[in-house]
Design brief:
The structure is a homodimer of 424-residue chains. With 424 residues, chain A is an alpha/beta fold. Chain A has 3 domains: 3-171, MoaB/Mog-like domain (Molybdenum Cofactor Biosythetic Enzyme, Chain A); 178-254, Alpha-Beta Plaits (2-Layer Sandwich), CATH 3.30.70; 259-416, Maf protein (Alpha-Beta Complex). Helices cover 40% and strands 24% of the residues of chain A. Chain A has helices spanning 10-13, 20-32, 46-59, 77-84, 93-105, 154-171, 191-197, 229-247, 259-270, 284-290, 308-315, 319-325, 330-344, 394-416, and strands at residues 3-8, 36-42, 62-66, 89-91, 119-121, 125-127, 136-142, 145-150, 178-187, 208-214, 217-226, 251-254, 274-278, 299-304, 348-354, 369-375, 381-387. In chain A, the strands form 4 sheets. Chain A has a 6-stranded mixed sheet with strand order 2-1-3-8-7-6, sandwiched between helices. In chain A, strands 14-13-15-16-17 form a 5-stranded mixed sheet, sandwiched between helices. In chain A, strands 10-11-9-12 form a 4-stranded antiparallel sheet, sandwiched between helices. The interface between A and B is large, with 100 and 95 residues. Strand 2 of chain A pairs antiparallel with strand 2 of chain B. Chains A, B: Residues 4-172 form the MoaB/Mog domain.
Chain lengths: 424, 424
Amino acid sequence: MSAEIICVGTELLLGDILNGNAQYLARQLAGLGIPHYYQTVVGDNPTRLKQVIEIASQRAEILIFTGGLGPTPDDLTCETIADFFGAPLVERPDIIEDITRKYVQRGRVMTASNRKQALLPQGAEVLPNPTGTAPGIIWQPRSGLTIFTFPGVPSEMYRMWEDTAVPYLKSQGWGKEIIYSRMLKFWGVTESAIAEKVAAYLNLPNPTVAPYSSRGEVKLRVSAKAASQSQAQDLIAPIEKQIKQIAGLDYYGADDDTLASVVGELLRGAGETLSVAESCTGGGLGQMLTEISGSSDYFWGGVISYDNSVKVGLLGVNSEDLAKHGAVSSIVAEQMAAGVRSRLSTTWGLSITGIAGPTGDTETKPVGLVYIGLAGSNGEVQSFEYHFGAGRGRSLIRHLSACTALDNLRRKLLSQKPAVMPSK
Amino acid sequence: MSAEIICVGTELLLGDILNGNAQYLARQLAGLGIPHYYQTVVGDNPTRLKQVIEIASQRAEILIFTGGLGPTPDDLTCETIADFFGAPLVERPDIIEDITRKYVQRGRVMTASNRKQALLPQGAEVLPNPTGTAPGIIWQPRSGLTIFTFPGVPSEMYRMWEDTAVPYLKSQGWGKEIIYSRMLKFWGVTESAIAEKVAAYLNLPNPTVAPYSSRGEVKLRVSAKAASQSQAQDLIAPIEKQIKQIAGLDYYGADDDTLASVVGELLRGAGETLSVAESCTGGGLGQMLTEISGSSDYFWGGVISYDNSVKVGLLGVNSEDLAKHGAVSSIVAEQMAAGVRSRLSTTWGLSITGIAGPTGDTETKPVGLVYIGLAGSNGEVQSFEYHFGAGRGRSLIRHLSACTALDNLRRKLLSQKPAVMPSK
């Protein structure tokens, strides 16, 4: 028993819009525990749509259509479905009435083309659309097959799904078993390295563990199928604990946690404050930190020292060192971190200087070379050198630089916590 | 003759990610004039993937796969395709070498699981991945059928498509009748206002004009179908010119232009420089400006004055004004802009102070209230007040603030140009 999503619309085939409806429905099906193995996108073309219905109706018991319910001539979904199953279309006076009423409310007059939206396959139930004019249907064209149709407008579709489709599916016995997931997040480690460390978990039946990676971040999704969220959590908890132990400091958080939010909580917990000095990231590190509402409790601000004159004038970087070692060097990174920390009177100063490219590199300093500086309250100043690789491009190098700066501070803050390092 | 897009990944079926790859490929195929009638999403499951290949290979001549090329056991796309067509997998030493080299560059060691990525179907050509480790393939498993595989990571896929797949498809005769589009971009105006102004153009047959909007930006896509790009451009040019005249200063650029790049070119052309002072955006304005390679020619840096102490200490904001009017006020915005301009010795100083929420609002200062300050070389200081609305959320309010700051500077710079205002 499974469901299949069929999105109808030439605008999807032209790439004019992102298929957010498929993502929404996919999440909803997972939440209800309804298996779902295929999604298909097809244009506003009756012949091809019928082909898709034929294939899908052979391998799924619930077909969910979005799109093609509007009043214009290219909106063909409902009549094509009816035609495929050999059912006549019947004009529904209750729908005519509903559309007329909505038009009056908006100070408009119903047009002839809207009458088309009142034609439903004989035997289908109306799936009401409270916010728009195009109704959907819930229909069993034959035993063991249920069809839902929704308009393509996301806000209308969400409301119809929640108000009518979900209660209907629950009345049919769905939603008794749910899928609940935790996304575990890692930084400073590759996907393949994590996958090898947790290889024993990647073949578990329930919960399942699957690795992902994007833009330097590695994730493991732990998903459990159970009768309730708390039972799913009970299945996930021991696996999550073991994976965290295996990953050590490479694990940084779960679900909505970000490196910035985790660093923020550590600073808040310690009653410490942070300032930043940014060169190649140009403000990106500050932006990440201030994405968190309430970050003003521990983040005081910083200096975007894009030009060398700002490094000297506002951060007190030594101009001889700048001339001798260049702006992208460990000594300048350290002076930037120490400078912003002392000028803003914060516990920590964190700095980034590097070559984001595609230009600005030299023979000894390739694109992707980045130094991160960290100055702490005991006068200690450290720096870290990274080679992110020229091939990764300006945007990703800047993103990796900002995240890696946060990750260095995170590891430093954790190493100071008595719970992690009892000897300190 | 048509192409079909097949996206492989359980994360798509679970709704964990949006299918941006399908949209990208759909647009690209449209641009090359390659017909494309179906998109399918299927999980990391060999049996189901084979079923999809069977169906797609009967109705299309070009199959484009994304996802499932990674190093982990659930990455099965390449071996499943090979298995379906009965081809053995062969380890390619050139790929092993390439992966090893990339790992060395990043200071890491290749793991055993990466070897899997070097296994390609016998007879397949490598589709090189310059930015990641997973290569794709270009393969004719039988006459009249061409297969392309790409990793699911969007940035890697885009690069591989542009560098290798497009030249290959053109060498096969595609791209002769092309669809060419220009995306015209507007700021400071609503989608419906633009759509009403250009209503006469929205029903043209060729070129077509279609409105879009997202995150405060309004766009009009002007698309022409023609035998060549230059013929398409000839169709588009007069329409584009008329639309620009209608829109006036609300039009800011086209295609890859951003507000930051347009402001940058204006500054560069005038030989002027810019510094920024950011409160609620926390570095986001500096980040936008420095997304442009070469921005160091005109952007010197700035101060992230998140805490009031930084506004006073580093920008010279008057602490009495701060106490009397609050940090979110026109007078503080103006002092921030003037302060950063004088301390960094730039032609212009641009500042942002506002309430991004969801907390921090007061009875007189709601979430979404933002002041933008602009200080110029003649000692003139201005400020602008905006109400972005609490309902739009922290992230969007910050984005709108940074873009609107750039837009104010853009309008100011344009108003100074003799070509636009001949009286000056």
